[in-house]
Amino acid sequence: QVQLVESGGGLVRPGDRLSLSCAVSGLTAENYGIAWFRQSPGKDGREWLSTIGLDDGNNNYADLVKGRFTIARDNAANTVYLQMNSLEPEDTAVYYCAAVAISPKWPVVSLFWEGQFNDWGRGTQVTVSS
Q1: How do beta strands 10-12 and 124-128 pair?
Q2: Is the pLDDT of residue 109 over 90?
Q3: How far apart are CA 128 and CA 104, in angstroms?
Q4: How many other C-beta atoms lie within 10 A of the C-beta of residue 10?
Q5: What is the C-alpha separation between 15 and 75, in angstroms, rounded?
Q6: What are phi and psi of 109, to 5 degrees?
Q7: Do residues 29 and 106 touch, judged by C-beta distance below 8 A?
Q8: Are 2 and 26 in contact (CB under 8 A)?
Q9: What gap in Å lies between CA 100 and CA 116, rounded to an integer?
Q10: Measured between alpha carbons, how far is residue 120 from residues 38, 63, 86, 128 in Å?
Q11: Which of 6, 15, 19, 67 is deepest in the core (most CB within 10 A)?
């Protein structure tokens, strides 16, 4: 089973930037898709933000974060990052990373809803407030 641990959340002001980390362990398959989701206060379900393939680094973004958020991976460190810029109060949420085993070169554009992912971290809180 894959273990994921998120870190880097906190309280920031509108316009600030923040970088989240997802430490991944227990990888046994040839390749994984790692995604970031978030759950905003009072909302049901988790909102998909971005996915990256660990083998080739191909990635995909939700329109609502495209151009503001950047996903990256460091395979040597077994870590996936989410760089978030120009944060807004609407970005306040618990941020989760999730993993699914996939075939090599699997198109990550097909990985964008929470039901596709098998393993989840516990989340890290991000609060954007003045």
Answers
A1: parallel
A2: no
A3: 37
A4: 13
A5: 30
A6: -60, -20
A7: no
A8: yes
A9: 7
A10: 12, 23, 26, 23
A11: 6
Token representation of residue 104: 């090599």
Q: Tell me, what's the pLDDT at 74? A: 95
Lookup: tokens for 100: 């699914």
Residues of the chain with pLDDT > 90: what percent? Answer: 87
Q: How many angstroms from the chain centroid is the CA of residue 32? A: 13
**Polymer length of the chain:** 130
3-62 pLDDT, tens digit each:
999 999 999 999 999 999 999 999 999 999 999 999 999 888 999 999 999 999 999 999
Residue whose entry in the numeric block shows the structure tokens 């198109």:
107
Strand partners, 69: 66, 84
pLDDT digits (tens, 9 = 90+) for 77-101: 999 999 999 999 999 999 999 999 9
What is the model's pLDDT at position 105?
A: 83
